[in-house]
Amino acid sequence: MVAAMHRFLGAALIILALGLPGWSAAAVIASVDRDEVELNESFTLKVIVDSAIETVPDVSALEQDFFIGSTSQLSNTTIVNGQISRSRTWTYMLMAKHDGELTIPPVIVGAEQSDPLRITVSPQADVLPGEADIFVTSEVDHTESFVQAQILYTVKVYRAVATRQPRLSDLSVEGVEVLKELAGEERSYDSILNGKAYNVVERVYALFPQESGELNIMPARFEARVLRDNRITGRKVFESEPINVLVSPIPPPPADFPHAAWFPAKSVELSQAWSRPPDNLPAGEPVTRHITVTALGQLETQIPVIEPTVSDSIKVYPDKPELRNAAVPKGILASRKDQYAMIGVTPGTVEIPELKLPWWNIDSGVWEVATLPGATVNILPSANALPVPPPVPELVEAAADSPDVTVVVQSKLWQQVSMGLAALWVMTVVAWWLSSRPERKPREVDEPPLHKQQAKFLKAARKAALEGDAARVKEALLAWSRLQWTSGAPRSIGELATRVSDPLAKELRVLCNASYGPHNTPWDGERMAKALRSFAVLSGEKEQHEMDGLPPLMPGRPA
């Protein structure tokens, strides 16, 4: 009973504290579902306040450039580890009054306000697909591209009438091998074309062609039964136009970086973080350096490995990378985070040079270089090091000519005899002490860490690949895989290819065909060595999305 009373009083105090002024800041966050729209297209503005307040946002400033449509609000309360947090979200449906680069002004809620937002409103298209009640459009951001470069494919379904049993078919491509990713969730909004109101469902795909040639994107197919004049028609089919994209081979690397890896993207950024400031680092103490590569328009498995060069005065121990990707309106945003444990060995100042990562800009079609500033590491002497004893002055064996000074002449023979007797006595004491100690089992040598063992086999595999020794490559990689998978390790390089990402998976299949195929096809050791520097271990097969099983389009509307 007492414990329950204490819990009640504690919860009451937390609620009271959160309700007092000064205990919480009503930060206002504004966001839009799209930052690029056409004139007469609606978009959604969300305003989130991170505390429970009764003040309604002041959106009157929006009326200068936007029509304000439907409005809704949602309150949310969460309790995590006894901490109560409240938020309230207002949602506004907006439509621009004119085209151009518009600014959504700050939304004021009480004493707080949001940051302004920029949105691009393009003019309404003059050429329409038709005056039909339903039609489908599709487009790509690039009609010419390169191998492994992202291509954004957008499908829009326009409906001015209600439908039943709607279904938009999945993307279908021919011509070249392509990796497909959904670039964000399916979006729904309203649009007015020539005075006619449409509901638009938009779906965006990120395509990554894996070989050169012609990429043929089949027409997007939308099927539905149409409700017209209170009568339901039979199932109708609506299609967009097909699209062809020319995929060119990988261009040569830039002259300044002849060994640069092929890395196409829309933008690339390098950043770093240290576990502590590296300017004063005692010798023998580790510091961790985190290097992150963020790329827009590329998959996380295609980000090249960065190997920072440092002085011999610092030992570097790399760890497993952390790979991530996320779908954003402009495609796939991928990141690779590497961390390196660095231990100073020799005291002194070490200059860590800047890092440079060449990448291909798929929008401008030119090579660019992302850079990361260098750093200065001042390695201090270890505090645990033993002090160096001062030098012992030599004994004087001669004296001045003054008769008042007594001259002491030391015989080196007696010194040597004394040192020998002392050494013999020390050896006798040590022998007695060792004989009196209990017997100990020999100490087992600690095995090196797992990542060092794996790095050893990967290094051996790269060396064998450069030497063209396929047997040693297989032996080293299978040894590495037994460390990676303690149970159920792959028994062949063909099986290993299904558990790692490209480009290593592709090179393993080539090596497998060269070793066991009927035509004795050649394999490239340099490409294999390069692939061994940039790959990831797959956690499992990606979930297959059945697009035909998606929820009905336009949920909640009359069908």
General description of the model:
The chain is α+β, with helices and mostly antiparallel strands and 559 residues long. It folds into four domains: 16-122, Immunoglobulin-like (Sandwich); 134-249, Immunoglobulin-like (Sandwich); 264-380, Immunoglobulin-like, CATH 2.60.40; 452-531, no CATH class. 18% of the residues lie in helices and 39% in strands. It has seven helices and 32 strands. It has helices at 2-19, 412-436, 450-466, 470-484, 493-497, 504-516, 525-531, and strands spanning 28-32, 36-38, 42-49, 66-80, 83-96, 100-104, 108-109, 112-113, 117-122, 134-140, 144-146, 151-159, 163-168, 173-174, 178-182, 187-193, 196-209, 213-217, 221-228, 231-239, 243-248, 264-265, 267-274, 280-282, 286-296, 314-318, 322-328, 331-344, 348-352, 355-361, 366-372, 375-380. The strands form nine sheets. Strands 10, 12, 15, 16 and 17 form a five-stranded antiparallel beta sheet that branches. Strand 19 and strand 20 (231-239) form a beta hairpin. Helix 3 (450-466) packs antiparallel against helix 4 and helix 3 packs antiparallel against helix 7 (525-531). The longest helix has 25 residues, at 412-436. The chain is globular. The chain starts with a helix and ends in a 28-residue tail after the last helix. Mean pLDDT is 79; it is low at 1-25, 385-411 and 540-559.
